[in-house]
Amino acid sequence: MSQPQAAVLDKSSPQIATASRYAEISHVKGASIGAILDTTSRVGKEAKVAMEIAIDDFTRDTNQILVLHIRNSQSKPMLAGHAARELIDTLKVKAILGPHTWEEAFSIADVGSQAHIPTLSLADSIPKWALQHWPFFVQASPSKYAQMKAVAAIIQSWGQRRVTFVYEDVDSTSIRVTSHLSDALNKVGAEISHLIALPPLTSSYSKELERHKQEQGTTFVVHTSLASAVRLFHTAKRMGMVGKDNLWVVTSAVTDLLHSLNTTTLSSMQGIIGVRSYFPESKPQFQDFSKRFRQKFCMEYPEEENYEPGIFAVQAYDATSMVALAVNGSNMTSGGGQNLLQHISRVNFNGLTGKVQFRERKFSTARQFQIVNVFGKIYVGLSPSGLGFPGTDDESTTYCSIQYLGQVFCSREQFRPTQTRQPLPTTLKVGVPHRSNFKQFVNTDNKDHYTGFSIEVFREIMKGFPDLRYKFIPFSEGSYDDMVEQVYKKAFSKGFPKVDDINKVLLNVSESGKLRELEKEYIVSEKCVDAELSTIENASLGLQNLWVLIVLTGARDLIDTHRVEAILGPHTWEETLSIAEVGSHAQIPTFSLSDSSPLWAVERWPFLVQASPNNYAQMNAVAAIIRSWGQRHVTMIYEDTDSTSSRVISYLSDALQNVGIKMINLVALPPLPSSSFFETLRRLEVEQRTTYVVYTSLDMAIPLFHTAKKMNLMGNNEFWIATSPITDLLHSLNATVISSMQGIVGVRSYFPESGPQFQVFRRSFRKKFNMENPEEENYEPGIFAVQAYDATWVLAAALDGTDTNGKQLIEKVLQVDYKGLSGKFNFTERKLAAARLFEIVNVVRQTCSGFWSDGLGFSENIGDDNANYVSSIQKLEQDFCSMEQWNTRRRQTLSTSTNIPLRVGVPSNSCFKQFVNTDNKDYYTGFSIEVFREIMRGLPNLKYEFILSDEPNYTALVEQIHKKKFDAVAADTMILASRLKYADFTQPYTESGLEMIVSLQPKVPAGWVFMKPFTGSMWTLIAAITIYNGFVIWLVERNYCTELKGSSFDQIGILLCLAFTTLFTLYGEKLHSNLSRMAMVVWLFVALIITQSYTASFASMLTAQRLEPRISDIETLKKTNASVGYSKGSYIECYLTNVLGFPHNKLAAFETTQEFAKALRSGEIGAVFLSVPKAKLFLSQYCRSFTKAGETYQAGGFGFAFSKGFPHLHDINEALLNVSETGKLRDLEKKYIMSEKCVESELSTNENGSLSLQSFWILFVLTGGTSTVALTIYVVVGFKKRCTRMLDKHKSVCTSVMAVVTNMWHQRRMFSRSVHDAEFPPDA
Q: How far is CA 720 from CA 894, 1198, 1213, in A?
């Protein structure tokens, strides 16, 4: 086997001697391929070693010789371009591999395509349009834009809603990454809130991070080079910004090189999470490669500390192997580069990175990434294609949220930036009305501690942000509207980045019962003070794509051949970037006329002077226009060709953020024919974008607007704002082209056109321009002409015929005091002062409709003391459309050509048909449905369709929005904190809260109803004064009336009888003393008033039924141990158990109002809990038997749910307010809720109105009982007396009988003795 041969030359300069090149080639036979790498970087070093190993393997396996020529580009596009020419023209390579950056790939793509040599780029950030432009361009590295889905998934897992994106301001790659990240975040309900552009070659980024240090609890996504990331995290750690209070997520641009860092460097990245490119490291093929790689890498680069191969090494190995196989196959056939390209496209083999295959000259997009604990370098697999986070790459693994992995990431409780923060150096200024009509809500009497319900609720919310300081500031200069306006005027803080989190905390305060306690303390507990009184057409890029070489050649020719002392121009940043290095190296001042140069440029190149003011401040004007028309969401359209757009987007994002507007979409226009714009605009049409800011070249804008006009996207439903790259050249267009820009508002650079100096220049310019450029239709000078005139004049004045070196020339230029055509020429640190004044133009008319001054606002004129500045463009009485027309445009938020309706879910199992009734499948009705229809009538072009859903509960129904089954939900859906993670809600359209419904019972026991006219104390006083008056009369009259005398017991009875009978009988003629008569008259007068009052009050009570709740409050309900009812499938079940403390076995679910009523009547439940609107409905149906009792428990009202980030939610809320303020909402409530007929109203009026025995049985018992007692006493006493008399009588009879008997007995004995004596004489 022959030895492998690879000619590897690391040449840092394209100036290579021809002789040495041919000498090199003559020693090597066989086909050759080229590679352009930055071999001074870690990426280039790994790729170089891996490519050499691949060539060795190919030669060993095939016994074929393939020569590899490597050139060092030093990451400079111009060197890459020169290297490509050398490889193709001199070394006759059959293909070129590399480089790793898009800017370098861009510089060699056209060279390869023109020579029909396949160019295989290893850059992972190639724009989609690149392959369409260059037929021999191949993307040999998988695109990693899909990692943004992984980043979004991580952010969603931690419940974050706003992200600060940190990128490097060096190329156009960042803007494409920004666009993909924005789209991914939008899909999970998050957004990019801030953009931080990091300048290159800076040792510290404290200036860029300082502003965000004050916003603890921030989520940062970092997409920079590894070198910039190391400096960034070192600075952030030193500033205390790396820790549990901030979440940092880094992309593969950083993590793919973590293996090259030492422990000391990694220590500054403690707690950072990363997304890393995945490749299988456990396979034997990689283990063998890794062993050989480490040996070779260590020998070639001993200065490196770590020798492990990374993703760039394995990708370079696979790409080289693929090209080698294709070259070997194509040698057998003819066809040159086209044939080789076909073989490359058909390559299919298993490489180190996995399956290697191409589709349409693109490597398959990376779909799997690893989640990295940066400091520990521990990895957990992830698939962003809708699967989630697995613990391994096993196909059977279950996918879930990152917080459930149980890995080395912090738990959700450990990371809660909305609740745990470091003390902030600034204080949130909170306006408080100095004078409130209701002290219970806002009480500022105590200057040291404000109180009141609203103040305490605010304090309770801010407890969820313990380290966010705030200060109450009293406001006494106007109404509440004036106070709120101070937020806009910056008197109080605005743009707080955690508004959504505050809303969640507010809902939690409400649902936890804390809001109810505060309401009790400050409102419900108030004592009633009256309680006693109550009753592009060319697809070819041409020479413009070789601008690097052309500009560079031109600059070197001017310096080396013409010996110029200074260079003026060019007008673009990319061209300036090309010659700034050349000029600074030769110490020749370069005066750039580009208005989009980054701020760090003059720091990097000491001989670069920015001779044109940058126009970034125009983004503030754009934001002011958008805010004037009440728009809330913006789509930016930019040109995907250079890095300028990334800076513009950053400035626009900040400007929009300052006025409360979101940039929801970024649209990159490729340099393709205008036919490609149709699909781009069609997507925007479908996605319902209506406000567009266009920042492109004029050549790109013309076909864009032409396509938009053909698609009817330039009418009354859309807002188009053109920026200065377009408007500054409007004067060069003809009327036909201008006609496609109807309705567009533009922001144009300002320069004074009325002065005599300009008029002289104008005449000279028109004459000379016409002679030199007769093909042009318009000869008027614009901003570029006057800026070039001024810069040339200043430079000429500085030279002034004297010999000076570069530094002296720059110093003289900076000292020139000149008022030119464009205004005052004033330099600061080699930069012309930024533009602060712009014109607002009507594009079609090309007329100035007003001016905008940074810090002042809009005005109709400038330059005099009478200029009147206003904050809104609608106050300018110029040729903009009327406010009514603009309001119409605001309401019409969708294009009339949009045919995709919103899918609106409707529940099929609503317990209350009055809110949602789906019985009629052709036309749904109900209060909630009709309110939704009424709102949508205010947005006539927003189409929708109702879709019936059989989800078991409303939370599951709302969750279907998150699952993309529905776009919205129209139902009686309560706004809850737990549901906000699935959808965004409108403002509530009903009252909020829960109410307890219980049965009614008579307010007092029916038998004692006669006692209710007077209170107990009144009855006691009446009884006492009556007895007292009776005593007085008795005492006075007893000396005149014998009837008032007798025993003590008799006199007490007479006194009481006399006292109470005087209430009803006049005894005046029987009284003998004037004293008693006087007491009697006054008492009768008082008694008359008392009896009449009693009669009136008693009659009123009998006429109006007096009922009261059977259970007065929740404490009483709990004491009765009764069950409670709620609507089946509603959130109330959770509220009853978690907040009110009812056990589950005491809860009963019902589906209809009839079931509620039946259960309450039967005693199955003691109470039922319903939302306020449903409680109204229930009580209107059962108006006589039930009532609400206790307090109203705070909970969210009913709202309509929409998908997160829905761009027209603000307009829907506005339409809802209009429905409410016009009275339509009240009418619908009357129709569907309050008009419900009381099902108990048919009860007999006689039954309700007649007085029954039940009302007076106590009286009957009293009088009957009294009479019975009297009768009983009478009978008993009478019987006793009769018995006594009878006993006395019987006693006398008995005595007589005994006397007779006794007498007879004695007489008998005397008779017997006499007879005896008679029969026997003594002398017989």
A: 14, 36, 24
